[in-house]
Each structure stands twice: as C-alpha cells, then as structure tokens.
From TrEMBL, chains A, B:
The lineage of its organism: Bacteria, Bacillati, Bacillota, Clostridia, Eubacteriales. This is tryptophan synthase. One of its GO terms (molecular function) is pyridoxal phosphate binding. GO terms for cellular component: cytoplasm. It comes from Eubacterium maltosivorans. Transmembrane segments: none annotated. It is an enzyme of class 4 (lyase). The keyword Electron transport does not apply. InterPro entries: Trp_synth_b-like, Trp_synth_beta/beta-like, TrpB-like_PALP, TrpB-like_PALP_sf. Pathway: Amino-acid biosynthesis; L-tryptophan biosynthesis; L-tryptophan from chorismate: step 5/5.
Length: 459, 459
C-alpha cells in the first residue's frame, strides 16, 4: 500500500462484532474473588445484588473466549467508533528516532476517553434486565461523563458520586454530566451510611475514590431495581475495553504492521487491559512476543511498589475482595498529584499477568509526564489527558532508546483521552508550580496496614 | 452501497488538494475594500503592512477559481482531517422525521473547531514570507487556540489579544493557548495606543472583539516582521474554509447524496462560507438549487436586521472598510449573550450573496439554541459549541417541518465545534438562569450611528 496515512480508520464493516476475553487464554486464572461475608470464594449469584446478571456472568466467566457484542451496543459504538489509529510522524520526526510510533486515540467522543466503551455495555445490560436506576462513582469525571452519556442514550436514571475535591474543582465536568441528565452528588454525602460515618469522623474531608465507590455500592444495594456500575478494575470492564486492542490489531494488520512494544497507562487497568488484550493473546499462545509495558504514576505505584494480595476494591470494605497488586484500600495519593490514575489497586487479570512475568511495569513522576504531554501536544496537535501522557512519556523514552541503538522498533501506545478538563494541572506545570511526590516506604506501609487478613490464605 | 454509516471519512487520497474561491463564480463581485486613509478602493499593496503578501493576494483575487493548497499545509491538514460527515440517525429517529440529516463535524481537533483550517494556511504563508511574529485577537478563544496550534507547529511566535471578559472567565482556554506557546494578553491592554485610550476612557471595560482586533492590528503594523491574522470575515478565510464544503460534497457524492438544504451558523461567516462554497457554486452555475440558510443569534442579527453598508472591521477603525451587512462597529451585544457569534459584521462575500438573493438568513434566541444543543448532545453524544448549536436549531426546525409535510428532504449542516469550554453557559441554561436578549430598534440605531460616512458612496 501507499504511504501509511496519519489517521487510519477501519470501515464500519471491519469493526469487531465480539469482545475478547483474555482469561480464556491465560495459563493460570486470576485468584477468585472472596465474599467478605463468608470469606469463601464468591460465586456468580453473590454478585447479583451489586451487578446485573449478565455482567456478573461476564465477571466470573474465565472460559468463554469471545462474547458477542449485543446489536444495540454495536449501534451506539458506531456513533463514535472506530477510533483512529494514528501514525505519529511528527513526534517521530521531532524525536529524530528510527522507531515507528502508532497510537490508538480514544478521545474523540464527548466523554473524552475510552471509558465510554464499557459504559455503553454496562448500561445496555442493565436496561435489558429491566433495572430502573444505576449508581457509580467518578474521580476526575471521565467515567461519570461516559456513563451519563450512555444512561441518557438508553434512558435510565443515573446517580454519580463524585469525589468532593473534583466536584468543587471541576464544575465543568459536573455540568457535562448534567447535560446528559446525570445526577451528581459530592462524596462523601449525607445520603449513605458510609458517607455520614466518614463525614462525622472527618467533616473537612475532600473525599476519595474508594469512599465514592462505597457510597455508590451502598445506594445500589439498598435501592429497588438499582445496580452499581464500575469503570475499571473489573474483568467485565477489561472484556468491553478489548475493543480498543481488537481495532488496533486489525488496523495494524491492514497496514502491514505489528508492534514490538505495546504501552498503556495503568490506573485500575481498563485501558491497558483493553489495548493489550489481542497482543497478550499472541504472547500467551506463542504467536508473537511483543513487550507489554504498564505505566503508572510514581505517586500511586501499585504494580511497581505494591503487594500482590487480597484487598477490598473500596474504602468502605463492602465489595468482594480481589487478589491484585495493591497499595491497600487505605492508601490515599498525595493531594498534589494531578495526573489521574489514583486508584489503590490494579485489575486482577493484569496483576496476575504481571505476577507471572508476561508484562513489564514502570512508574513516572508527574512533572516528566506533563513535560511529555506538552511536547506531544505541540507536535501531534492533540492535547492529551494527563493519564494518557503517562503512556506518551514511556513511548517517547522507548523511541529515544531506539535512537541510541539505531533500532527501528514499532511502538503502539494508547492515547486514552483528552485533557480539556485538566487545564488547572497544565497551568500548574507551565507556571512551574507542579511538584513530584514519591511516597516513602513509611507512607506505603500505612496503606499496607489496611490490607485485610483472610483466614487460610497467605501470600 | 450498503447502509450509510454513522461516520463517513474520506480516504487520504480523496482529500481536496485545492481550495475553491467562490468569488470566481459570482455574477457580481463584492464591492471593493476602501482604504480609510485615501477613501479610495484598496489595492493589494495597501494590505501588505497588515497581511503577508500571498494572503493579501488571496484577499483581493476574485478571479482565480482554485488555489493549490501548499504541501506543508496539506501535511498539517492530514494530522486531523478528513473531518467526519455524520449521518444523524439518532436525531432523525428522535425527531421522528422523514428528513435525512447529515452534519460535517469540525470539532475533532484540539482547537475544538473549524478555525484551525485557516489558521494553518495563514501561519504557513507568514512563515514562508520570513515573518518573525504574528498577532491576533480572540473572543471565545477558539481562534486563538487554533492559531496557537498552527504557530507552534510552524514555529513562529504569536501574541493573542483576548477579550478581557473571556480572559478572566475562561482561564482554561488561556491555558490551552499557553500549552502551544501562545502569549495571551487581556484586551484592552496597556501595550497599544488604542488599548491605553480605551482604558483611559473606561477603566472598567471588559473589552470587545472589535477592540482586540484593533490592538492586534496596531501591534502588527508597528512591529518589524510582524503581521496580523484574522479568523473570520475575510475573503482569504472563506477560501481556506472551503475545505469543509469540498470534503462534504465529495463525501456526499460517494454516498449518493446531495443536500436540499445547507445550514450553517453565521458570526463573521468563516464556517458558513466554507461549508456552502461548492453548493453555492452549483447554485451560481445552475447545476443545482439547494436552499442555503445562515443562522445568526437574535442578539447580534447582522444579516436579518443589519444594514448593507461600508463599515470598519474593528472598533478602532484602522482596518480597511468593507461593504457588508453590519450592525455598526459600535454595536456591542448584550453581556448576557453566551452563544458566540458576537461580531458586528458579516463576510463581504456572504453579504453580497445574501443581498443578491442566493441565501436565506434566520435568527434564533439563545435559549432555543441551548435547548437544541442539549437535545442534540443526548441523541448524538456530541456536546456542541453554542455557535454550532445555532445550526442545529435550524436543522431541527427544518426536519420538524418535513415531519409536518411528509417530505424526505436531505439536510446538511455544519457542526463547527465542541462546547467543552462553554460549560458556564450550559449550566446557566440547565439551571434556568439564561435569558434571551433581542436588541430594540433603538439599540440597533446606536450601532448604525457608528457607521462611517464615505464621500461619493451612498447606499
């Protein structure tokens, strides 16, 4: 074919019709969820009070390799997908690297990130089951926005518990959710037991993602016809997000390319798990052997400095416990951390793959992340989300390494979203007001002290 | 072909290689610019102190039908173009209309609007001429952002005079420009004669677009190697923006479609003039007869209630005078007007076409605009810029008319950009705090009183 274009879009016919379930090809499955009530491995029906049934099934099913994407979900995907696979010619030129750099850009939808891919699926299944309302939490606001869009589209009411500091600092994010009829509550709130408890103990708290999750789960469990939906960490979310990787792989095949290195930012793992899915499949089945790199913030280093242990997914300790790399649900990143990816744990699937040596991980300080973000914006004319810029940083570092060695490696990274709502952080960086924070071993120990003790299970 | 997809992208090979100059097919040319120094028709060299030479030539050339798009401009276009032509299946369904609705979406780039199309061209020609800096003004910030992107890409310093009220209310817009190295000054500023004069007369002023233009022009004229660039109104801008219409027309041809109605929002005319260009060509040359509709805000109604007269393009009255529909350079829209499109005049090309009966115009109140914006966002999952929502409103009204009459008309409208930086206005609308403002005849008369008197020329 002729010169590879800057932006490559699959045709509507080439869009994936099925999601890929990475667990089906894993040599060993992630350890099972533990029901905190019984301290026994959870079964599918244990999840029904929290998740709708089809999603509970997807959460537990480690065998089915492909799940059909329901037609109404495909229909909504087609409104904004395919996302472009972009060849970073200008970045390559600016870095003077022999490497070929590609990125899959998920920011071209109003939610501004890849989160919409799973939001649509989760809302659709809830609607199909006849549920009458949904709850969720949001930190930076991307997930809440995505879910508001999907809920509005499928016409089901949504309450979003938004971490209070974001609620107050990001009124525009809140307003976008309100355009899509999302009901936005600052968390902690007076509407839940856990919210009231936290407020009583610490009236001045600015909230945390773990606390917002607890409030959303409590409301879902106590409200008739209501369920909770979560934008990351879960197996079901990685399943839905596999669309990112499947599209990327098909597009690269058409272009005659295959990545030597696949790089994604890692918070709870939703983007990373989706992007790498079909490439990890090749690795697990021996078809190819790309390097796969998770990039996390140095201020919230669950893979690179966390423990591989059972932990709660929420601060309120009411969700099932998962075996994952975690800093402890009691770990709270420094308030000066602006770069997203603040979650204490990591997807159990990704944790297992990392533990078993299929994946690398690296951490970067936020000033280096923003340096990469600004550099990238100028060259590629896309203003990246700080989260995405973690992957940019690592991709640039790999490309510069290629410059040293003269290797023309093919690098693929995930550009998960845009940074329009992160300008406060950009301004802090540009004006020299941004600092790095790296937790001390003592800081981390405080988080580890919050890890649950599970009878009969040792690390 | 199979069912028309939601999003249709031209392949890179189908992208236009030339801009189309609408004037070449007009039966009568727009009246010439008047040099305010001599009160005589301006010649190309009169413009050299303000514009670089190639742009001055494009401004004055009414004969050349097609201009080659320089390769470096095409190269930067390819980073974010083609923009998608979207079939509004969900909007059609929600409105229950037999009409087919298409929109050309120009918001998928970091500047968030179509403005980038002309910014790239103008910066390229300035660089090519060896100029060493540029100035411009920005109101809502879209143009300033676009120009910052282009200036950063071609590595030429830029100063943006930003209307003070926007500078203060939209710190995030300012920050985006700073990411791209734009130097942003609140206008009026102390850096120019006109700025100091206005501040002395009215220290509390929040500025106006006309004043910011004056400051930018003054700085360009007084600074060695510096020129002024403008994002709308000018003939050269409409030429560059013809890429919108050319892509739209090619895409519709491939899909086997042709619009019965073409609708665009109208401020200075940059988007409208670009979108309609090839369809107006068909109309001027008798090949087809689509209805062409300009939509403007009821609070700044230059086409529907303005005068067709010679006027200055800026408040400072230092630019050449143009014959156009205008409310007078002294007209200032109500501060409660949130919907963009605040400019007092209208592109001379569009003014002439409207005057000669080739185009319709309508005006809409901003609450009806935001009603359409929110409705559209929910159905099409794109959060529109308020400016773009003027076109949405008119397109919805036409589609609803089709529902009444049963006609299956094909409607094309321009979705010029996204509304991420307009959430203050969205919140005002959602919370019922938005009012409409329609200027009284007395209000308009004050603006008309500012129109220049030109010896020997009567309307």
């Amino acid at each position: 074919m002729a010169k590879i274009p800057y932006r490559f879009y699959l045709s509507e016919e080439d869009l994936p019709k099925q999601w890929y379930n990475l667990r089906a090809d894993m040599k060993e499955q992630p350890d099972p969820l533990i029901n905190p009530g019984t301290m026994q491995p959870a079964v599918e029906s244990d999840l029904y009070p929290v998740f709708c049934e089809k999603l509970a099934h997807q959460e537990m099913d480690g065998e089915t390799r492909y799940f059909d994407i329901p037609e109404p979900v495909q229909e909504m995907y087609r409104i904004y997908r395919p996302s472009p696979l972009i060849r970073a010619y200008n970045l390559e030129k600016a870095l003077d690297t022999p490497a070929k750099i590609y990125y899959k850009f998920e920011g071209n939808n109003t939610s501004g990130s890849h989160k919409l891919n799973s939001a649509i699926a989760q809302v659709y299944y809830a609607k199909e089951q006849g549920l009458t309302s949904l709850t969720t939490e949001t930190g930076a606001g991307q997930w809440g926005t995505a879910l508001s869009e999907a809920s509005s589209y499928f016409d089901i009411p949504l309450t979003v518990y938004m971490v209070k500091v974001s609620y107050e600092q990001k009124p525009f994010r809140k307003a976008v959710m309100q355009v899509f009829d999302g009901k936005v509550m600052p968390s902690p709130s007076e509407t839940t037991d856990i919210g009231r408890k936290i407020l009583a103990e610490n009236p001045g708290t600015t909230g945390s993602l773990g606390c917002a999750i607890s409030e959303a789960v409590e409301t879902a469990v106590k409200t008739e016809g209501c369920r909770y939906v979560l934008g990351s960490v879960l197996n079901q979310v990685l399943l839905h997000q596999s669309i990112i990787g499947l599209e990327s792989k098909t597009a690269m095949e058409i272009l005659g390319e295959y990545p030597d290195i696949v790089i994604g930012c890692a918070g709870g793992g939703s983007n990373l798990g989706g992007l790498i899915a079909p490439f990890m499949q090749d690795k697990l089945t021996g078809k190819a052997d790309p390097r796969i790199i998770a990039v996390e913030p140095a201020s919230c280093p669950s893979l690179t400095r966390g423990r591989y242990a059972y932990d709660f997914c929420d601060t309120g300790k009411i969700t099932p416990m998962a075996k994952m790399y975690t800093l402890g649900s009691g770990f709270i990143p420094s308030a000066n951390h602006a770069g997203g990816l603040r979650y204490h744990g990591m997807s159990p699937i990704l944790s297992k793959l990392y533990h078993d040596g299929y994946m690398e991980a690296t951490s970067v300080e936020q000033t280096r992340v923003f340096e990469a973000a600004v550099y990238f914006a100028k060259k590629e004319t896309i203003l990246p989300a700080p989260e995405s810029a973690h992957a940019i940083r690592a991709a640039m570092d790999e490309a510069l390494r290629c410059k040293e060695t003269g290797e023309a490696k093919t690098i693929l990274f995930g550009l998960t979203g845009t940074g329009y709502f992160d300008m406060t952080a950009y301004s802090a960086y540009l004006e020299g007001r941004m600092n790095d924070y790296i937790p001390s071993d003592e800081d981390l120990q405080k988080g580890f002290d919050s890890l649950p003790k599970i009878p009969g299970i040792e690390e």
